[in-house]
Amino acid sequence: MLKVAWRKLELSVEPPFNFKLSLEATPPLPPLEVRGSLLQRGLSVEGASIPIKLSVEGGVEAPEAVLLTPSWVDEELAEAAAKQAEWMICAKLRLEDAYRSAAQDAKLRRLVEELRGLKPWLSPDPWEGLATSIVLQQVSLKAAYAMLSSLVERLGRTIKVGGESFKSFPTPSAVASASIDELRACKLSRAKASCLYELAKLIEEGSLNLESLAKLPTPQLLARLKELKGVGDWTAEVTSLLSYARWEVVPAADLGLRRALAELFSLPSLPPPSRVRELTEPWGAWRGLMAYYALIAYEKGLLKQR
Q1: Neighbour tally for 113: CB within 10 Å
Q2: Which of 113, 138, 154 is the last residue of a domain?
Q3: Fewest beta carbons less than 10 Å away: which of 140, 170, 230, 297?
Q4: What is the pTM of this model?
Q5: What total of structural domains would you count in the chain?
Q6: Does residue 203 form part of some domain?
């Protein structure tokens, strides 16, 4: 087997970043895979599928991220892939800004101290984020993982490099070219299969440009997303986080978050979405990120220790 030469690109990462904690808190969803100390997948860049390997070392306060792409990948495409990878790991997210805001709230102060450097994973492009949010609707993470794995396996592109497989998320073109039955074979319900198919068709026809929505203020972004088939409040809110990094957005109907806030605020029962919004409103522009911290703290049992 021929030895593969890899191009090394250093990524710029704002500290703090606890890579290990971030992996433990939210295991990456397909097609992102953990291989030892590396993350790897294929990224769709300007119509091409680019194999990447990503590593983060150097410690929480001085993270050093490196992206590897095969040397045969065009330099401009490799640079574009590096920008997608930086977005995917929230490399530019300045947690210290969020922490300064959180320090004013006694409940949040301890959370950010115990989870220092935690960053969520973002989708490398808006289509993947929207499609993933739809798959995640009203199912367990285990079930969603199985659906996404099947989608990637059946409709995504796989590139072999040096005996390793790098899988990309299905493009809108691939989904629009599939039948509903083919999508159903990916363990999707008929409603989800139909929803993904119709959204992919809109993108392929040029009627829907998800990238352009990034220019919209958050209220208009949420409103536009909710105009799409199969997208309600929860899906629009999760997509605004996964695809557009709108950290002021809270997925108020999320069951896990409601459980976390019930414990954090010592409530007698689960708060309804309206109460979730009231409780998180004082957290300001970072309330979506702080809600994520509360959820992870709940899942790790940290709130019981308070």
Answers
A1: 11
A2: 113
A3: 140
A4: 0.96
A5: 3
A6: yes
